User: Which sequence fits this backbone?
């Protein structure tokens, strides 16, 4: 599974609809 997290200025950004940058994480067997 993949998880997209909003990301801005080197930090996780809380407003999903207000950022253009995302970090993508792969999750396998419960590990990121």
Assistant:
């Amino acid at each position: 599974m993949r998880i997209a997290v909003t990301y801005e200025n080197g930090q996780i950004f809380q407003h999903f609809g207000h950022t253009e940058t995302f970090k993508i994480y792969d999750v396998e067997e419960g590990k990121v």
User: Anything to note?
Assistant: The first strand starts at residue 2 and ends at 8.
